[in-house]
Specification:
The chain contains seven helices and 24 strands. It is of the alpha+beta class and 562 residues long.
Length: 562
């Protein structure tokens, strides 16, 4: 049984052999069949068309590179009609997870019509071979699999981070062309264990400049295997695979920035990046019974680590902050049932941790402790509460921002949730207990260093207010153009003889004496007209207000006399 998405890259070789007793779609009692393969809704292969044949022989091959076997291969057969919409002849699914690896397997797919499942539409013969896309590094990874499993079991309860991998994706060089124009639209995927990152797409180039930076986290002290794949973006069909490479992080020195020019397999180009491994002794999620600062022995060790005597060792490690997320009360109801499914997201610079979800509850209790590295004591801890929705993005319920310098250690405090812009309150209160331990000398030295750039930003969303403003602006422009058009049309219709005669004379004079400088002059005159018109309008409004104020004052005086 093949594994699912998290198991690595796979190569699927498909041989489309022949079809038998396919459906009749043409008047002559035959069809012109061809076959399409689709993965994740995108077309990845189309066969040639065999004309006037119900038992076609294709004998075509294609190879697909994929990183997920949970999506089945969708096979569809059509009858080609010149100048018309092609007729559907049947479809079938090939489930990749059930395929045995390292062996060619003959497959017979019975074609069906989802609208008429009882109708017989014939069948296809294929031969498929599924193999992992191995490399020499992967063989070494297999030898350390048991050790990695032991480490993951050891840290599963606390989800401890052992280090941070800071990656700056710089550029690609000499990539192979994948599009008919001799270029590609490349982007890069990174994977380190369960963590994934995808870069932006750079259009129509073989030497893309990405200039992106992001962080991944190490869960193994010995390092890990960073998988890098480069893809060509294609609209309307499956993206093309350009190449891949792997990097064994255990071979790199820590606390040092490495300039790496990694060759893709089979001479498909290079990926250039900067990579830094940083030790991270205290970044974790734990139950309240396992918090490091509540253990007297461990607390003494942490205080010793950040004492004044250790001020000049590892200057980047300024301190740690421990956040206990206890509970929330009176949250907003985001579901139609009058409840919510709340969870918390905690962010400190580029570190981001998340609680579990408490379902159908407006007063959830999480009782989780989060530990972060402090890189800058002037940073702000952000705690956001969301409502989980399985079939769409999470709904925002509220947020608080707490500067680290304003925290009182060990104090359980309730914070009123605010809106996204932190400009006003929303419904609900969250209760947190925060402790900060840091070295004052390191914090002072860090103050003169530029603040860390935050790379994890919320995706911009469409603003309804801004959209309404733009719509109204366009509507006003269109109405002005329509009014001008109606005015010009009235001149042609001779609704006013005087106006039509003046327009005709003006038109003849302008055409007879037209010069290019008249265009900017006309625009200038229009601006001057609008300026004086608006100024006179404002003056008239001011005079009218003064008259109304004077009249009201006079009435009050009369009332006082009476």
């Amino acid at each position: 049984m093949a594994a699912s998405c998290s198991s690595g890259m796979y190569k699927l070789k498909i041989e489309l052999k022949r079809g038998h007793n396919l459906a009749i779609r043409d008047r002559g009692g035959t069809s012109d069949p061809y076959v399409k393969f689709k993965l994740s809704g995108k077309e990845v292969f189309r066969s040639k068309t065999i004309h006037k044949n119900l038992n076609p022989v294709w004998d075509e091959e294609t190879t697909l590179i994929m990183d997920c076997l949970s999506e089945p291969l969708y096979v569809k057969v059509f009858d080609y009609d010149f100048g018309l919409q092609d007729d559907f002849m049947g479809s079938a699914y090939l489930y990749l997870e059930s395929l045995e690896q390292h062996r060619m397997i003959p497959v017979t797919l019975e074609l069906k019509d989802p609208q008429h499942p009882e109708q017989y539409l014939g069948f296809l013969e294929l031969a498929v071979t599924l193999t992992p896309k191995d490399s020499p590094i992967e063989e070494r990874r297999d030898s350390t699999q048991q050790q990695s499993m032991r480490l993951s079991e050891l840290h599963r309860k606390s989800q401890l981070w052992r280090g941070i991998v800071s990656i700056a994706l710089i550029e690609g060089r000499s990539l192979i062309p994948m599009d008919p124009n001799g270029l590609s639209d490349p982007y890069v995927k990174f994977r380190l264990g369960p963590q994934k990152y995808r870069s932006k797409t750079v259009l129509k180039t073989l030497s893309p400049q990405w200039r992106e930076q992001f962080d991944l986290h190490l869960y193994e002290e010995s390092g890990g295997m960073l998988e890098i794949t480069v893809w060509d973006k294609d609209t309307g069909r499956r993206d093309d695979f350009i190449g891949r490479c792997q990097l064994d992080l255990s071979t790199l020195a820590k606390e040092h920035t490495h300039h790496l020019e990694l060759p893709l397999e089979e001479s498909r180009g290079y990926v250039v990046l900067l990579l830094t491994l940083t030790a991270s002794a205290h970044v974790s999620i734990a139950d309240l019974s396992m918090t490091p600062l509540d253990d007297p022995h461990e607390r003494r060790e942490i205080l010793k680590r950040y004492s004044v005597l250790k001020s000049f060792s590892n200057l980047k490690d300024v301190g740690i902050v421990q956040v206990k997320v206890m509970r929330a009360e009176g949250l907003m109801a985001a579901d139609v049932t009058g409840k919510s499914d709340p969870f918390c997201v905690l962010e400190l610079n580029n570190d981001r941790l998340q609680t579990h979800t408490v379902y159908k509850n407006l007063n959830p209790e999480w009782n989780k402790a989060f530990t972060f590295n402090v890189k800058d004591i002037h940073s702000v801890l952000e705690v956001s509460v969301f409502d989980e929705d399985r079939d769409r993005s999470a709904d925002f319920l509220g947020k608080v921002a707490i500067p680290l310098l304003h925290i009182r250690n060990g104090e359980l405090k309730g914070y009123v949730l605010k809106n996204k812009g932190l400009t006003g309150p929303t419904k609900g209160t969250i209760y947190l207990e925060v402790d900060v331990i840091y070295n004052t000398v390191k914090a002072a030295l860090k103050t003169v260093v530029p603040a860390e750039q935050k790379y994890i930003e919320e995706e911009p969303k469409v603003s309804k207010h801004l959209l309404q403003q733009n719509f109204n602006r366009v509507k006003r422009c269109i109405m002005v153009l329509i009014s001008y058009g109606m005015y010009i049309n009235s001149c042609f219709e001779w609704e006013s003889a005087q106006r039509s005669i003046i327009s005709f004379v003006l038109f003849v004079v302008v055409v007879w004496n037209f010069e290019l400088y008249m265009l900017p002059l006309a625009l200038l005159l229009l601006l001057v007209w609008n300026y004086f018109f608006s100024s006179s309008k404002d003056t008239a409004d001011m005079v009218r207000k003064q008259i109304q104020t004077g009249f009201k004052t006079h009435l009050k005086r009369c009332e006082c006399v009476l």
